[in-house]
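Sample A.
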Amino acid sequence: MTRARTLRLILFAAACVSASLPAIATAQERKPNIVIFLADDLGYQDTGPYGDKTVRTPNLDRLAKEGVAFDQAFVASPACAPSRAALLTGLMPARTGAEANPSEPRSWVRKLPSYLQEQGYEVVAFGKVSHYQQTAQYGFDHFEHDTFHDPEGIPSSIRWLKARNSSKPLAIFVGSNWPHVPWPATTEGYDPSAVKLPALAVDTPITRTARAQYDAAVTRMDSELGSVLDTVDRTLGKNTIVLFSSDHGAQWPFAKWNLYDAGIRVPMIVRWAGTVRPGMRTDAMVSWIDILPTLVDMAGGKPPVDIDGKSFAPLLRGTAPGHRDAIFTTHDNDQYVNVYPMRSVRTGRWKYIRNLHPDYVYTTHIDQFVQRPGRGNFFPSWREAAMRDPAAKKIVARYYHRPAEELYDLKADPDERVNLAGDKKYSATLEDLRTRLEAWRNDQGDTVRVKETPHLKEGPIGGAPDPQVQDKAKVTK
């Protein structure tokens, strides 16, 4: 009898296990696939869904109609390496160690792929997802074509998706190189006289041509997005979350390498069928450091609490009305060119920027490396215009020379033209934001560790020679 009872218990347990296996498999199947598409150097205002009606972005327009568009999405830093490191770790630059461009995050910092792998996902990357050729250290199951402007980055992702045969849920990161410079050599159908110039721009013919080339690069990115979306819809099906965004603003004066909104505010669109109502917009403030915990949350995991980011999945599910009340951003330098450390805090209405070395002269590749083809080469025309046009002179002077503190009322002045830091009417606001930023920096352990030599004078009107061009010439000789 004892043996018979034991046998019945064993059979009963086996039946329970057998019955639970389909449930486990079904739960695994219910996990959504995740697609992250990243543009490179794309400003938040430079697409159709975000107000530029002269640029052609039909695929992004379609994605916005199918999902929710974030009007207040920001990056942690307006340079490629620190921005992407923040995305892939959920940490701000001072905590990852990737503060300057193109520095790498510390080896012991946990990376995004491991969180998703823990949830049973296959995690892969194609194109520029991390900074160029840093992808291997992030722990993806597979990656391809992460070199500079590799034309096979997007096509390889499409081929891989079509050939994939796996029952695991998939998280695929696809990084376009567009609209990063070099821009297309021609305007590809864009009329320079009709393009939309940024608020702080000197209107010269070569500037308009450069902007048309940038718009052409934006359209190339959009075409790549369309190819990926079409393939995703055919191969992965409806149970797929798509998140689109950009690592920072365009390589344009007062955008990339700056803490103005043109540098740190980015487009972000999320399509999540059955959860997000199509065609929605939200003004909830989110940061790129929030993407990691959000994806973990969407994947069914518990978002980590020991990082700087926090999940905005509740916002997407409709269970939370907002997200952040402030955004902090940092910038240090881009190797030896852009040596100008700055920090900022931005609320819904106010922006405070602390330029840590106002004695330095602000420079970027834009004014230093005008000999490089496909970079616009327009800045000398700004400086020439400044010799005869007071308005152009003011813009150029503002580009090179920054005060220690900047304060902007974004409600009244969204283009950040009028610095209110010296106005006594706003002294209380200034002090509040100053104190808030310093407290955050102390909490982060954020100190200025810039090792490169700063620029202390403006370059020649024609621009400084490009070291890469000079090195190439030496090799040729």
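Sample B, a different protein:
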Amino acid sequence: MFGQTTTNTTGVTSTTTTTTTTTSPTERGLEDLDAAATAYAARIVGLSPERRQEARDDLVRFALPFAGRLARRYRGRGEPLEDLEQVARLGLVNAVDRYDPERGSFTAYAAITIVGEIKRHFRDRTWGVHVPRRLRDLILEVGQATAALTSELSRAPTVAELAERLETPQEEILAALESAAGYSPASLNAPVGGESSAEFGDLVGESDNDLESVDDRVTVSGLLCRLPWRERRILAMRFYGNQTQAEIAARFGISQMHVSRLLSRALTWLRQAMLADAPATWQTGGEAEQHRMRVSVRRAGDRVVVEVGGELDRETADQLRCAVVDAVTAGQPAEVVVDLVDLAAVDAGGVAALLAGRDAALRSGTPLRLARAQPGVRQSLTAAGLAPLYA
């Protein structure tokens, strides 16, 4: 404030008081940011590092209210306002350090830098569960597309509609929708509500009763390998394939009552074997005797015929393998025929025995062929690659 003396035309002397108000930089407002940045750029030319730092700090303090206003735009989104303000100030410092007056407005550059820093904070630091960056970006796009399509369709869009709008496969849209829950997962320690003191984690999961049966399952799987092939197959068809006894009987060409007796006998043996320290050997006899594997070798002129009957499994396969190998290597017969007319069933062990006989025949140069296999047996042998040996 200072005074000025003037004389008017009447000769009366008067004093006019003029008041000069100095406005602080903080009160100048947003419109002065560009001018302040330009003055800062001109001011630091030729200054020492200490004075340059002081000028930088002055500009940062001057622009702090601007950064605070940008931070407040993002409050209410799950992050404390204090954290957002700190992130905005970091963006402001970066904007001051990187600003070049020749590239345009400082206000626009600072706004872009600060908002970018805030968005990066939300993207990288606020997820409760780690989600790949590609999915995080897609989640934002899905959210924007959902809002747009909801406005256009007056209903929530389907996954197919979102995929078409974003030109993205539906699998990725589904992955983004599922991953969105990772932003703010529910706490297992959150109270359920009401007067109870239970927490959300108390309601998740339940007792796994199957754990108690693990030992029994392991024991049974080992005992099943001790059963003959037919009994194993019937058990699998009944309890894993959910086939009826009549369907199993039709598959094996026996009566439904016979299937019932075989199931009862196998289950009884399994029950007793599980309770015993050493499982008893499976006893064949009576009605089951007809299914025991039988091998006989006879000569018919210059040919050797190996007749096979019953059921061929891994426990009896070695007997057949020895018979066939001996037949093709001893005496150089003109041909060896394996007659399978009485063979009721064959498993992987029996197939391996026939394959070993075939390889021995190829090495010795003796022709080997299979004859009169029943449809079920023929199907198994064909699948194993033995079809060329059929007569």
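Observation for Sample B: Residues 49-72 form the longest helix (24 residues).
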